Amino acid sequence: MAQIDAFFRLMHEQGASDLHMVAGQQPILRIRGEMEKIKYNMLDNDALRALLYEIVTEDKVKAFEETGDVDFGYEIPGLARYRGNLFMQKYGIGAVFREIPSNILTCEQLGLPGVVSRLSSLPKGMVLVTGPTGSGKSTTLAAIVDEANKTRRDHILTIEDPIEFVHKSQKCIVNHREVGIHTKSFAAALRGALREDPDIILVGEMRDLETIALAMEAAMTGHLVFGTLHTLNASKTVDRIIEIFPSTQQAQVRSTLADALKAVVSQTLFKRIDKKGRCAALEILICTPAVRNLIREGKTFQIPSVMQTGKKFGMQTLDDAILDFLEKGWIAAEDAYTNAIEKGKFVKYLKNPPLDFADA
Fold this sequence. Notes:
Elements (H helix, E strand, L loop, with lengths): L4 H10 L3 E5 L5 E4 L2 E4 L7 H9 L4 H10 L1 E8 L3 E10 L2 E10 L5 H4 L3 H5 L6 E6 L6 H15 L3 E6 L12 E6 L7 H8 L6 E4 L5 H12 L3 E6 L4 H10 L6 H11 E11 L6 E9 L2 H8 L6 H7 L8 H10 L5 H7 L21
Helix pairs in contact: 7-8, 8-10, 10-11
């Protein structure tokens, strides 16, 4: 057993989402969104380096020492998997670990709307799950893929850096590929995927132009592609994809994206005040003919109004989801206001509203 495993077991027992270990500081856990120090000595740089290198492969250590940061995966059988990141900082080495539960929660257990679960049955196209870091994108995607694994008879191929949730083949065949170990890059894996007879492709992160272009190509050639982006809402997700391409290609990309994109699920995580835990407010965009026309014509600023009128298709705006949680007494008014898009709707719920909420 690696020495660092004791910290992971403590992390698991405390229900923490993240573990921070940085030279010159005490270890810190993120519990329900808040940082809490572990009663432990300040971490010495050399001792911490030895502790971390015990669980990192030689090739990852080499990459870290050449570049100053590296992602990797680690697993304690019977406990959980961990997504780790090593980095150099002013006082020496540092690391952050995110716990990936061994058990994959279903869409129902996560409280996701039925339309999100039904995305697993799409025959083809691209579905994006977006949100800031730590908003639960991987958990939502895992639940959707799990639903497909239980109900379809297909080949599911995941491409991640590192592998997070591990799906055991059920009705589907599931293959996991890790960037840096099983393939050189997301783009290389996507190019190879088209020759590996997949029905469903999960792209852990759509980081660059080439990966996005290949993901759209896969969606247009009869595959169902799931991916993530670090964007805050549905309309900004569409804009981000188009803007990553040179201006001379954007008209063609808008047309391709309009045909390929099937749905965008954007989520923001909130700390609950009625009980321990957190909840995810979802913005859901379903690409109806009206939405596809807006994308094709470059009128993404009109997407929120279409979502307001598209509730019968399962669409909802982030503000409506936040308002629902607020009225149920699940989240604090201050959190609702901070994360809302149109903050004016939430001022009346604040005890001490800002003088000029329009600029907040």
